[in-house]
Each structure stands twice: as C-alpha cells, then as structure tokens.
Write a structure and sequence with these properties.
The structure is a single chain. The chain is an alpha/beta fold. It folds into four domains: 2-214, Translation factors (Elongation Factor Tu (Ef-tu), domain 3); 220-300 and 336-427 and 465-471 and 483-547, P-loop containing nucleotide triphosphate hydrolases (Rossmann fold, 3-Layer(aba) Sandwich), CATH 3.40.50.300; 559-770, Rossmann fold, CATH 3.40.50; 781-821, no CATH class. It has 31 helices and 27 strands. Helix 2 (11-26) crosses helix 8 and helix 12 (256-266) runs parallel beside helix 13. The longest helix is centred in the C-terminal third of the chain and has 31 residues, at 773-803. GO terms for molecular function: helicase activity. This is Probable helicase MAGATAMA 3 isoform X2. Residues 253-433, 450-525 form the DNA2/NAM7 helicase helicase domain.
C-alpha cells in the first residue's frame, strides 16, 4: 500500500493512519474555505479546542489537546494549498475502476502523463464533477489521496465516502449527500472528473503517527510530566566513561558551558536540553557531543583487555587518505563515492582536502559504539551539520580526528553533501555490484535489491542524518539496529508532534538543541497558533522548569552588538569570546556605520493589494543610499558578499531586491544578500541592515513585535547592525522600546529626515566620526572598576562601623547589588 511507503506504518499505527485519512478525506472543501475567513478565537471556541499545557496527567489528556489542534493545522494547509495553486489549472480525468476496501473506496483514474508526473504519494487532490468557477457552487466533489502512481497515464486514489466527520469525538461520520453523489460518479466507468492538486500531507501524517506513538515510548511519563524522575541516585553508575585522550581534547577545544552541555549528556539523563544563543558554537557543541557518545563506554562496563591506541604512521598524502575513506565505507565494494566529486571552489568540499586531518583506521569491532540519529526541521539546517562533520570530522577515543561512517537521508540534499546522500550511495553500490557480476551474468537492480542496500547502509552508519519529517518514512522501520541516541538540532523550531516523529523508533537518550528565543515553529493555522500549537517540546519543557544547559560565550558579534540581546533575551548571561576582537572594521570610524546604529525614519507603511504583507518605500530609498555610501567609502564592500539587508516582510524584501537591481545592476544579487528574517536563521554576515517597515500612529506593529524574530534580525552580523525604522511606531512594543532607548543611551541613534541624501554628505559624516569602540569599552570597564573599588571601600567602612555598634547598612530583602545597566 502506498501509504506504507511514505509513512512508517507498522500494524499498530495502521489504524491510526486510517483514522487520520477518514477524517481528512471526509471534509467538505467549501466549508473549510468558509471557516478560514472566521477569526481564530471564534473557530476555536466552536470546536472546543484546548490550549497546550506545560504538563499532562495521562496520554488521553495529551492526545486530547494536541489532536484537534493538529487537524486545525491540516485544514489551514489545505486552504493555503488551494490559494497557492492556480485554480484555473484543473486537469481532466476519467474513472477507470472503483473498489471498496478497509472502509475506503479505491479509485483508478486515467489522466495525462504530464499531470501524473506532477503528483506524489500522499498528495491530497480535489475531485469534482463540475469545474469550480466564479458565480457557481459545485455540489458533487470530494477529497482524494494519491495512493500510488500506477502505469502510464494512471493514478490510484483513496477516498472516503461514508459520511463527513465534523466532530472528532463522534465515532460515526455524519450523512452527506455530496459524498453519495461522488460515489455514484466513481461507480460509473469512464465518468469524467475535474482534478486539482492541493498539497502534500506526508509530513503532517507522520506527525499524527508520532503523536499517537507517545503511549508506547519508554519515556512517556517524562514527556507528559516534563520532569525527570526524582530518583536519580544511580546516574553515576549509568554515566558514560570518556577515554582520557578524548576528554583532554574536549576540555581544550570546548569552553566551559559547551563542556557542561556535553557532560550533561554523558550523565545518561534521558532528555538533555541545550540552548544555543546566536554565535555560541552550537554546531561545535554537537560535534563534541557526537565524539563523546560514539567513543565512550558505559560506566558499569569494565574493559577486559584495555584499549591500545593504533600506531600513528607518517603524515598521509591525499591519495593515501582516499584509501582510508574507502576502507571506512564497508557498504561500498567499489570506489568511495566521496572521491567521485571534488570541491570546485574550495568553499564547500565534502571532506578535508589538505593535511589538516590525520585519519586513522578506526576499529570497526568497537564494542560499545552507539547508533546515532541526528535530525533537524529543515534540509538546510540538517545539511549544515552534515557539512561540518565532513569538513572537520569528529574525534575518536584516542583524541584523533577522523571521518565517521554517515548517511544523509531524505529529499533535496545540498550539492556539497550529495556524496553521502542515501540515493547516491545506493547507486554507487548498485553500479559496483553490476560491474563485479558482469562476468557471471548480470543481476537485477530491482526494488528488493535497493531496499536491502538501504537497510545495510542504515545499519552500518555510525550517524544517520534526516529531517524530522523524513525520519517517519518506512525506510527506518526496516532497520535491524535501533538508534541509541537521537539529537535534534533547531528543536525550538519544530512543533511538538514533529519532534515526536524520530522518537517513535525508540531510543535511550534524546538531546534537544535549539534556542526558544529565536525563530519559532512555522504554524499556518492562526487558530492552532492561538491555542499554543506552535510551542515546541523544548519550550514546553523549559517553561515547566526542566533543566537547560545554556551556551554562554558568543564568538560572532562585536560587543556593541551583543550587549543588547544579551541583556534583553538572555538575562545578561552572554559573554564575548576573544575572537570578537576581529569584528573591528574600518567603517567603524563613523558611528552611523556601526557597530550598532538606529536610524529613526518616519516612513509610510502600505499594504499591497490582496496581500497580508507590508512595504515601506521610504525605508527602501534610505537603505539604497546607505549601502551606496558604505560601498563608495569602503571599496572592499563593493565586491564583498558579506552585507545583508533583512526585513520581516516578504513584500519589502521583494521591493528591496527590485530597487537594488535597478540601482546597482543585476550583479547586486551576488553582492548584497536580501532576505526575510526567517531566511536568515542560522546565518551570519559582516554587516546587516534591518528594515522594520512598520510606521503608523497606534495601529500596532504586527508580527514585528515577535521578539524572537527581532532577536534573529539583530544578531546576524559580526561587525555592524544598522536598524532602519520608525522609533515612535516601534516603541509601542516593550522590546523595541528598550532597543531604541539602548541606542539613544549609547549615542547610537539619529533622527533622519528627507532629503536622505543630505544625511550622507561628507560634512555630516565627519560630525558622526566615532570614538574608538575598543578604547570606549576599555574606558567603561575602567570606570566600572573604579566605582566598584569605591563601593568596596565603603563596604569595609560600613562593616567596621557595624562592629562598633553603628547603624546597620545590610542588604535589603531583594538581594541588593547593582542593576544590570
């Protein structure tokens, strides 16, 4: 069955999948469209939705909260899919056959091959006897799910026509004349139908299965209670022992907070949460974690023969390293696929190409090596980790670097990690088998062979990389070796059911790595969002008081940039690493070019017709002038690709791109990276110009008020963050009010009026020449030390006075001390 190919469906979950399909396929498409125009609170109240809680008493309550919200998200995805598809792009099909099975009707349609190639398994289609047109209301239509693409010009679909499910708590669907009319059409061979592709349901089906798998998880109670068991007395016995050479490496290459995060995992706690603020080396910590969990032994296990380090030979040449990589890939009897593609520009190689790595042949019979699954919500976030592993390797028990056996599973791998993608490795293996068997009769390379090869690659890989969604595919259910550890990166960007998908395979330990004060999960349904569906498992645990290991030293931003987000979003805990001294730049001689500056512009916001987005043409004009002046005064920026323009709104991004192309030529696309805040998560540039867009009197600032997007927007730059916005408008929000006040207090603020070009004339810029920021910071530190010395002397005098029976100058009940500022 096609569903089993796209979604992991063991017998226990098949009933779960059928329930999901019956509910969704029964829905009335036009009713969904009508309901989508209502306000979220109105819909939520009518549907009896409940808000996501911090803790749950049992599985029934847990699913009772999440399942209705998940179905609200399905509805929103269907409606959005209909809006994104061209409603004029209807296709014609003819009924070839119809048969009933498992309560569904299986319909075979004859369609054009062109349309057949456009759809995939688990795409939801809208079928109608009448073509949807303005001014008419169809009466005979239904949803269908693509079960499989059959032979030439054939689609096999699954439909549910027994009635419409309007209430999840009712066992029987309600009678529907609409569906009965569709059944009559399906039973008439060669009946013509109109077909419209809506969207894919694969991801949310896997999330639904993941949600219902909670009852069978060994750490079910922990997920429900968001708390560790009080009895943790045996953690010491369960802890992993890290070989001393590896521990020496970790201690010398990780800072204290990174090391604390790794050691928290080595304690064998079931769940470990690691918060990685911008620039704190989150990926570096994950690599350290991988080194530790792959090469440590359980504390209770004593080695019988000890471990002898391999003999280190002379430095290997690149050709010799290729031989090592071949030996490190046992599923390939032919050439290592990584050798077949070499990096072109040196910027995105798949593995080290110089002598910086000294790989050793790692003992393939390691007794206590664990099987690790690494997941992320998106392909781009996943490929970033894969590329880091390939470029830098990880460390073994002897403190030696090597490239582990890995495979990247799923769709759309970046070209730089293609050589370790599952499809690529399978093709290489098949080609090798064909070559070796050519003399003894060619063997087939059918589906069974491919499945066997995929399973062997999964079993033999030390680390498997997959998106959260794809970890729910049936490929994983065929493994012979379960995962011991699951690491989820960007865990705060995933809704909770999505995080449950990889856990359904069973594992002993889970690491959630992310940052709840950066971008949240994407939720399409405003109704589900209002009831907390966008809350990640990471955030729910954190709100419930679950311990979180926070990385505290940032290596990206100039101190004048990091000072505000540290205080505003991270309780003042962020510290600046030594490397941030390198962020000092020539353009800092002008205060208006950074490290931080706020340009207060009273622009005019507007909303393009038929759009939920906003634009501000005055900000576009000013930003173009700002970039022109920067590039003309500092020639290196003309050819650099290290400048970004960021905005929360898609239409503002579109307008900025058009303006830059018109003013600076088509090549500006390669020099200036213009994108949304969401498009910049996890990335960094030397200079970031932030266009806030909103400018009004008391109408609010929309989702610009989302402090998580604000945090991402102002932490993308190493050297300079230049904010362009209307201060009076933004100060309607407390976080933005604090940012404007911080800019004013630090003399990093200026009110700019038209003509904007006058602001950038040389005479005005000369007045904006800045004091050396490093001398400025040193001066502030010296003043602070002087104040502290005076206070310490006063404290000594007070203590002596108290000893002599004078008035008590003790602390107040609130703890006293200094304010953050």
């Amino acid at each position: 069955m096609a569903v089993e190919k796209a979604v992991a469906a063991p017998a226990a979950s098949l009933a779960t999948i059928h329930r999901f399909e019956k509910i969704v396929l029964s829905w009335d498409y036009l009713r969904l469209v009508r309901e989508s125009t209502k306000k979220g609170a109105e819909v939520g109240t009518a549907a009896g939705l409940k808000s996501v809680k911090k803790t749950y008493k049992d599985v029934e309550e847990y699913i009772g909260v999440f399942e209705p919200l998940l179905f609200e998200e399905v509805k929103a995805q269907i409606v959005q899919g209909r809006e994104e598809e061209d409603l004029t792009d209807w296709q014609k099909g003819a009924v070839a056959s119809c048969a009933e099975t498992d309560g569904f009707h299986r319909v075979s349609l004859a369609v054009l091959d062109e349309f057949r190639e456009q759809v995939s398994e688990n795409d939801i289609l809208l079928l109608s006897k009448e073509k949807f047109q303005e001014g008419m209301t169809p009466s005979t239509y239904a949803f269908a799910l693509v079960e499989q693409r059959g032979g030439r010009e054939t689609l096999t679909l699954r439909t549910f026509l027994a009635g419409e499910v309007k209430h999840l708590d009712k066992a029987e669907p309600e009678h529907s004349q609409r569906l009965l009319r569709m059944l009559s059409v399906f039973k008439t061979t060669e009946s013509f139908l109109w077909i419209l592709k809506i969207c894919s349901l694969s991801t949310i089906m896997r999330e639904y299965v993941g949600l219902h798998s909670v009852a069978s998880l060994p750490f079910k109670d922990l997920i429900l209670s968001a708390a560790e068991k009080s009895d943790q007395g045996n953690l010491g016995d369960r802890a992993w022992n890290v070989p001393q050479p590896l521990m020496d490496y970790l201690q010398s290459n990780l800072n204290d907070s990174q090391l604390d995060a790794v050691q928290a995992g080595l304690s064998r706690r079931t769940f470990v949460l690691i918060q990685g603020p911008p620039g704190t080396g989150k990926t570096q910590t994950i690599l350290g974690l991988l080194s530790a969990v792959l090469h440590s032994a359980p504390g209770r296990v004593q080695s019988k023969g000890g471990i002898s380090a391999p003999k280190r030979g002379p430095e290997l040449q690149i050709q010799d390293k290729y031989c090592h990589w071949i030996k490190a890939s046992p599923w390939l009897s032919g050439a290592n696929p990584r050798d077949l593609i070499m990096p072109i520009d040196g910027d995105d190689g798949f593995f080290p190409t110089g002598n910086e790595l000294k790989p050793e042949i790692v003992n393939s019979n390691r007794k206590y090596r664990v099987h690790v699954l690494v997941c992320a919500p998106s392909n781009s976030a996943l490929d970033e980790i894969v590329l880091r592993v390939l470029r830098t390797g990880i460390y073994d028990e002897y403190g030696h670097v090597y490239t582990p056996k890995i495979v990247r599973i799923g769709l759309k791998p970046h070209h730089s990690v293609q050589a370790v993608s599952m499809d690529y490795l399978v093709e290489q293996k098949l080609a090798s088998v064909d070559r070796s068997s050519s003399g003894a009769g060619k063997q087939g390379s059918g589906g069974a062979d491919r499945d066997r090869i995929r399973t062997s690659i999964l079993d033999e890989s030390a680390i498997v990389f997959s998106t959260l969604s794809f970890s729910g595919s049936s490929l994983f259910s065929k493994m012979n070796r379960a995962f011991d550890v699951v690491i989820i990166d960007e865990a705060a960007q995933a809704v909770e059911p999505s995080t449950l998908v990889p856990l359904a395979h069973g594992c002993r330990q889970v690491f959630l790595v992310g940052d709840p004060v950066q971008l949240p999960a994407t939720v399409i349904s405003s109704t589900a969002e209002r009831f907390g569906y966008g809350t990640s498992l990471f955030k729910r645990f954190q709100k419930a008081g679950f311990p979180v290991q926070m990385l505290k030293i940032q290596y990206r931003m100039h101190p004048e940039i990091s000072i505000f987000p540290s205080k505003e979003f991270y309780g003042g805990y962020l510290e600046d690493g030594e490397s941030v001294k390198k962020t000092r730049s020539p353009w800092h001689i002008y205060r208006c070019f950074g490290p931080f500056f706020f340009f207060d512009i009273d622009g005019v916001e507007s909303q393009p017709s038929g759009s939920g987005s906003w634009v501000n043409e005055e900000e576009v004009e000013f930003i173009a002038l700002l970039y022109h002046k920067l590039a003309s005064k500092f020639e290196d920026l003309k050819s650099s690709s290290q400048l970004a323009v960021i905005s929360p709104y898609r239409h503002q991004v579109k307008l900025l791109r058009e303006r830059f192309r018109a003013t600076f030529g088509d090549q500006s696309d390669q020099i200036v990276d213009i994108n949304t805040v969401d498009g910049f998560q996890g990335r960094e540039k030397d200079i970031a110009i932030f266009s806030c867009v909103r400018a009004n009197s008391g109408k609010g600032i929309g989702f610009v008020s989302d402090f998580r997007r604000m945090n991402v927007g102002i932490t993308r730059a190493r050297s300079s963050v230049l904010v362009v916005g209307s201060a009076s408008t933004l100060m309607q929000d407390d976080h933005w009010k604090n940012l404007v006040k911080s800019a004013q207090d630090r003399k990093c603020y200026c009110k700019v009026t038209k003509p904007y070009g006058a602001f950038f004339n040389d005479a005005n810029l000369d007045e904006l020449k800045a004091e050396d920021p490093w001398k400025k910071k040193a001066k502030i530190v010296d003043e602070l030390h002087s104040e502290m010395a005076v206070m310490e002397n006063m404290a000594v005098d007070n203590v002596e006075g108290n000893a002599e029976g004078n008035e008590d100058y003790g602390m107040e009940g609130d703890g006293g001390g200094y304010d953050d500022d």
